[in-house]
What does this fold into?
Amino acid sequence: MKHQMRVHSSGKSRSGFKYLIPPFGRAAGVIVGALLASVGLELFLMPHGIVVGGMTGLSALLALKTEMRLGLFLFLLNLPFLFLYRKNIHWSYGIFTVIGILVFSLGTLVLHPYPSLINEPLPAALIGGVSLGFGLGLSLRFGGALDIAEKAANQLQYRSLSPERLLLLLNCLILIGAGCHFGFLQALYSVIAYLSAFEAVKLPVQGGIFTQTVRIKSRQCAAIQGELLMYLNRSTVYRQEPEDTANGIGILECRCHRLERSRLISVVHRCDRESEITFHPKD
It folds into this structure.
């Protein structure tokens, strides 16, 4: 049987001072993610000529072909797209993304002189992919990004190509380019690293067994959506029951980490003290 926890509003409003703390914690999370990603790239993948997908993979491929520093390409390929589409992204996402990309680029520059921690390419591909993916996911989890290929694909829709297909095409071209330049075996290691990173990204973002489904019933759904995206980096799905249409009541659903429940409740109650919040175990 599915257990539920229902929360109702009561008591005085919380002080706004507490909301000065989360941005610093989120910045720290983005920085830690950027450092982990730097370690995965420079201490495992790059010494073996292994690349992955996205802007990170394209930067690595260009760095290996031109012998220029990886950090330079990470900076030059990501930030222009972020600036170009600045009007279509939330300001907090932009700030944390700039922080993440700067730390990511500087981290790879600092670690570049050091040799690989593993001499064999296969374990290097696995460990490097996991470290890179977990770092990317951690930055996403705290409201920033280290690779804006997906965001750029959402803006560069071309005819019948969806953003997912554009991103898949980019990744395929990068891996094919790695195969043509370094050979089939290196391309195979790159695919292994890409798959490892792809799966590792999900760990901090989705949270596994530590996440719950949250159902929020409120008359201020639009405001709550914006606040949850800003403070918790949580996207929500909106729907409305027929019987609530006349009353202007909507329902938001999203995933929430168990450690975030108190913060989520506080954020929602800032917008609507009369809202009804229900927590369900992950399906």
Remarks:
- The chain has two domains: 22-206, 208-281.
- Residues 21-45 form the longest helix (25 residues).
- DSSP finds ten helices and five strands in the chain.
